[in-house]
Structures are given as structure tokens and as C-alpha cells.
Task: inverse folding
């Protein structure tokens, strides 16, 4: 069975019963566990260290911090997603390939000049120009490198386009939609 890597928003929707997406996400978590039960395995739901960093950042820049609510959220994350997933060298390789594919397809023409020296290619195109968020790209790289399903509400259209013909496909599920959880082969 594949593992599932949950992004920041999915975790927030799962935790926060006030979110309109909460029921769908909790329903999908329950459905996935029910699908896995006959197989006598428990699906691994993982949180990336990248996502943990996003959560920590959000807590530190909150306009009106609520320490009790933040502590409850972190407790939920630790209990429901006890295994954090580190960024590995395999993910770094997948990141390089994905970012290069994005660059070659979406970077403005003037930034794709032949014979550029490597130091000229250090972030030659902004995330906005490539239509990605850097942390999303890292999550995709982790999912691709380790054959995981990335659970996200983000469209990631450009990343999906360039990842189509990679050796390991990018598998996405959007658990904010009812009945979206599944066990891919």
C-alpha cells in the first residue's frame, strides 16, 4: 500500500471542525481506513517536515496568536500524524528534475538562454513565473521520490503537466471532495 503525504491545508481542514471542508476530509480519512481494513494494514498518513515548517511559520506570524489553540493543533498533528517525513536525497533529485521541467516549460524565453553558466541558473525564474509554490514543489518531490500519494486541495496544474512522463508518477488526491480517498496500486 502506498503512503499518504498530507499537505498543510488538508491537515488544517481535518483538525478544524469549523472549516467547511472538515466533514469531507474526516470522511475520506475514515473511508481510507475502512478500505484498508480487509487488507489488514493501516494506511500510513504522513506529514512532511516542510509542512511542519509551514505550520510553525503560521503560528509565529498569526496576527492574534492563540497559544491554547496552537498547542491543541500541534497535539492533533503529533497524535494523528506521528511520523514526520524527512527530505531525503531521493527527494532532492526529484525536486531538481521537477523544477528543471517546470523551468524548461514555463520560464520566460529570455531566461532560457543556451550556454548559461550554472551560477546564472540559481533561481533564474521566480516561483510566480513558474506558477508554483516552492514548498508545494518539495512535497511533490517527496511524493514522487517515494511513490506516495500527495493529499492536497491545491491544483498544482503546472507540476502535474511536467510530471506526467516521469518514471514515478505524481499521484494526487483531494480529500476536500467527498469520496476522494482511494488506495492506488
Result:
Amino acid at each position: 500500500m502506498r503512503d499518504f503525504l498530507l499537505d498543510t491545508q488538508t491537515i488544517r481542514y481535518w483538525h478544524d471542525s469549523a472549516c467547511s471542508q472538515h466533514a469531507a476530509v474526516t470522511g475520506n480519512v475514515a473511508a481510507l481506513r475502512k478500505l484498508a481494513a480487509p487488507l489488514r494494514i493501516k494506511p500510513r498518513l504522513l506529514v512532511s517536515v516542510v509542512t511542519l515548517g509551514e505550520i510553525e511559520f503560521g503560528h509565529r506570524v498569526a496576527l492574534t496568536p492563540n497559544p491554547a489553540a496552537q498547542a491543541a493543533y500541534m497535539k492533533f498533528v503529533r497524535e494523528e500524524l506521528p511520523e514526520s517525513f524527512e527530505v531525503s536525497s531521493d527527494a532532492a533529485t526529484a525536486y531538481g528534475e521537477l523544477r528543471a521541467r517546470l523551468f524548461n516549460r514555463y520560464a520566460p524565453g529570455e531566461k532560457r538562454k543556451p550556454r548559461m553558466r550554472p551560477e546564472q541558473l540559481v533561481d533564474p525564474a521566480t516561483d510566480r513565473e513558474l506558477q508554483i509554490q516552492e514548498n508545494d514543489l518539495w512535497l511533490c518531490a517527496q511524493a514522487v521520490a517515494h511513490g506516495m500519494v500527495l493529499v492536497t486541495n491545491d491544483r498544482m496544474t503546472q507540476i502535474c503537466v511536467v510530471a506526467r512522463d516521469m518514471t514515478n508518477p505524481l499521484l494526487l488526491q483531494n480529500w476536500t471532495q467527498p469520496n476522494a480517498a482511494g488506495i492506488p496500486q
User: Anything to note?
Assistant: Residues 49 and 86 are 6 Å apart (CA to CA). The chain has one domain: 4-173. The chain has a mean pLDDT of 89. Residues 89-106 form the longest helix (18 residues).
